[in-house]
Design goal:
Blueprint lengths: L12 E9 L2 H6 L1 H5 L5 E6 H10 L3 H4 L7 E9 L2 H16 L6 E5 L2 H12 L1 H4 L23 H14 L7 E3 L4 E3 L9 H20 L18 H5 L1 H14 L44 H4 L19 H6 L6 H13 L10 H8 L6 H5 L6 H12 L7 H7 L1 H8 L3 H9 L3 H9 L15 H7 L9 E4 L3 H5 L2 H13 L3 E3 L9 H5 L3 H21 L3 E3 L2 H14 L4 H9 E3 H7 L12 E5 L2 H7 L2 H9 L3 E4 L18 H10 L1 H6 L6 E4 L4
Parallel strand pairs: 7-8, 7-9, 9-10, 11-12, 11-13
Antiparallel strand pairs: 1-3, 1-4, 2-3, 2-5, 5-6
Length: about 675
């Protein structure tokens, strides 16, 4: 056998033209017309996909770039020169502009914007799965294809068929090739649901055959839809398949039940009527997963966006190890198998799961960047809480997880504490006791805490609006100058700054080690102490992103149903967010310098970095925001002896080289103590 392949040149210059239509059917109708202009890509989707993104808070800025419409085509043109690709795009635009009911159009010819538009399309598979307020969507009819000149008509009939079953799925795919990727909200755990699934698949197969297409445009059909191959190919061709296979496999032992003599479409499902996973009692409530950790482990649909290496925050451990077990997808799969008891059989005490979660830096990159919002940081915390139930934890868990206690003791005698942590020889013993790498330096305690300074100063702006400045453990005990500066800014902006007198801690480090009973206790203390202020609507302003995310993320997941927890979630701001949203008229002092900016992982993945950028622009800084992912410290992760090497690799990927090559005198800006 001989196969001849044609190589296609990769054009060095590209642009994107996006066309917006009143509906996705009309977008499909236009495909033959736009293909005459030889785009190298022609992708499409409908407005339901963007609605899914909005429900998830996914790609909100990118969506704003799209032209008006309810159905879109993304056309990419490639060539040797910018003039060439622009001419082709403009020729198509001129042609379409003169038509009745012309689509809206937007041309993008700069790489950052092109990347943003592609993100909308590339996230479609995960972005249309596990959408808040909607039933989970599954594969099954995710790969049908018809001739490109029949896409519009096929879409009308297919969407009508969806409507017959009461479904309104998001539609997307490679429209230029006539291939559609659609995940459908099948109900796959009841007999009624499976009967509807089988019935739909039968009708959909009839429909795609009517249009001269296939139910497997680019994926395999050996098992998932093989029951319907006779309807697609005809009995004569399927019999030829059977005869051909018998030549090589007369006893039918090689991969039986695939393609010919196939399994039923409802056999061997991941779910099915026998799917009855355990529902373990958990600390977190998983409201977004219908209050079920088992449902949470189903979120991953295998897209593999977590396996990228070039940009973003997700997934730092995969970026430096290149191991599937250290990716978001690998960890999610292991947790699913752990609950099924097959092949992993030790439940919460399973060492394979612990090993896979060990290098998770709890950066929350997956929650923010995974299209289905798999939240491994939370799952890791949950797992460790059960794994160590009744067991001793590693030394580093007590040293770092209980830092709020050690710091409070150190505040009584900071010089003595620093003597043991900073003196050569003694500091080595301190690091050994804490489980830290000897290559790290323990940060010194400040001689005077921020709260001690604040209690001794004269009150300012007594008749101005009140704000609460959250004096987190790190800025209070280690870098009080940061909190003092925040007081100056807020008072200059016209606010009366209040600081809780009671020693309160959100317990952020506790989550990294699964100390969730204590974490919940600390949160309840905060709610009790701040309840009057919360009910008055007084804003709470945090400086440490990881502490702010406790109030905005973990708190309502750990303490479900508390209305004041929900209020605090809505009333908590980072300083930059508060200045932008509540003090927009404040004239920020100018700082005419160059700066290299590294955003905290939680800030980028959970809180978003927009407000920070706006504040930086107002300062007059000439700055570069690094796409540096995780710095590798991740709280105490990078301090720990067993994690030091991975932490260094994370930092060396982008951040540390950028700092070393920064211009002399440039500011290095990084929010977050770690």
């Amino acid at each position: 056998m001989e196969i001849v392949g044609n190589l296609v040149a990769d054009p060095p210059v590209r642009n994107l033209l996006v066309l917006g239509y009143p509906d996705v059917y009309q977008a499909g109708d236009h495909i033959p017309e736009v293909l005459r202009y030889n785009p190298i890509a022609c992708e499409g989707f409908n407005d339901r996909l963007l609605e899914d993104y909005k429900r998830k808070g996914l790609h909100l800025n990118e969506i704003k770039l799209m032209p008006n419409g309810k159905g879109w085509l993304i056309l990419e043109f490639g060539g040797e020169t910018k003039q060439e690709v622009d001419d082709r795009a403009h020729s198509l635009m001129e042609h379409l502009k003169n038509q009745k009911n012309a689509p809206t159009m937007q041309l993008y010819d700069d790489k950052p914007r092109e990347h943003q538009i592609w993100e909308i399309r590339e996230s479609a598979l995960g972005g249309s799965s596990f959408v808040p307020g909607k039933e989970p969507a599954w594969a099954g009819w995710e790969d049908s294809a018809v001739p490109a000149d029949r896409v519009g008509s096929y879409l009308r009939d297919l969407d009508a068929l969806f409507g017959k079953y009461g479904w309104q799925p998001s539609i997307f795919g490679h429209f230029g090739q006539g291939c559609l990727h659609i995940r459908v909200p099948f109900e796959l755990t009841t007999q009624t649901g499976l009967d509807r699934f089988r019935s739909f698949m039968d009708e959909a197969t009839t429909l795609v055959v009517k249009y001269g297409g296939s139910f497997s445009g680019e994926h395999g059909d050996g098992q998932a839809r093989a029951q319907f191959l006779p309807k697609l190919f005809g009995d004569e061709i399927v019999e030829a398949f059977r005869e051909f296979k018998a030549i090589w496999d007369p006893d039918g032992k090689m991969n039986p039940g695939k393609a010919i003599d196939a399994y039923s479409i409802t056999e061997n499902l991941k779910l099915g009527t026998n799917y009855d996973p355990p529902q373990p009692k958990t600390h977190f409530h998983y409201e977004a997963d219908r209050f079920s950790f088992s449902n949470a482990t189903l979120r991953c649909v295998g897209v593999g966006k977590c396996r990228r290496e070039e940009n973003g925050t997700m997934c730092p451990s995969y970026m430096v190890t290149h191991e599937e077990m250290h990716s978001t997808r690998g960890r999610a799969r292991l947790l699913f198998e752990m609950l099924q008891g097959n092949p992993l059989s030790d439940g919460w005490r399973d060492e394979h799961v612990k090993e896979a979660l060990d290098l998770c830096l709890s950066c929350k990159g997956c929650k923010g960047e995974c299209p289905v919002n798999v939240d491994i940081a939370t799952y890791k915390s949950e797992f460790l809480s059960h794994y160590y139930d009744g067991r001793l934890r590693p030394r580093s868990a007590y040293a770092s997880g209980l830092i709020h206690r050690w710091a409070r003791v150190a505040s009584w005698m900071p010089a003595t504490a620093n003597f043991f942590t900073q003196t050569p020889g003694l500091s080595n013993l301190a690091k050994l006791a804490a489980g830290y790498s000897q290559k790290r330096q323990i940060p010194p305690f400040a001689p005077r805490t921020f709260k001690q300074w604040f209690a001794a100063r004269v009150r300012h702006n007594e008749h101005k609006p009140k704000v609460i400045l959250w004096a987190d453990t790190f800025n209070n005990h280690f870098t009080p100058g940061v909190a003092r500066a925040a007081v100056e800014v807020l008072e200059d902006a016209g606010y009366q700054v209040c600081v809780p007198r009671k020693s309160l801690c959100c317990g952020r480090p506790l989550y990294d080690y699964g100390m969730l009973d204590l974490a919940e206790k600390l949160l309840r203390e905060i709610l009790t102490s701040l309840r009057p202020a919360i009910q008055q609507g007084i804003p709470v302003i945090g400086l440490e992103p990881s502490c702010v995310t406790v109030f905005r993320d973990e708190m309502t997941n750990l303490i479900h149903g508390d209305e004041d927890a929900k209020r605090l979630q809505q009333q908590t701001f980072l300083l930059s967010e508060f200045l932008e949203q509540k003090a927009g008229d404040y004239q920020i002092p100018q700082l005419k310098r160059q700066a290299v900016v590294h955003g905290h992982c939680h800030h980028k993945s959970t809180l978003q970095f927009e407000a920070e950028e706006k504040v930086l622009r107002k300062t007059g800084l000439e700055y570069q925001i690094l796409d540096s992912g995780c710095c590798g410290m991740a709280g105490a992760f990078g301090y720990e002896r067993d994690h030091y090497a991975v932490g260094i690799k994370c930092g060396e990927r982008v951040l540390l080289p950028a700092i070393r090559t920064a211009s002399k005198g440039a500011l290095i800006i990084a929010d977050g103590f770690s």
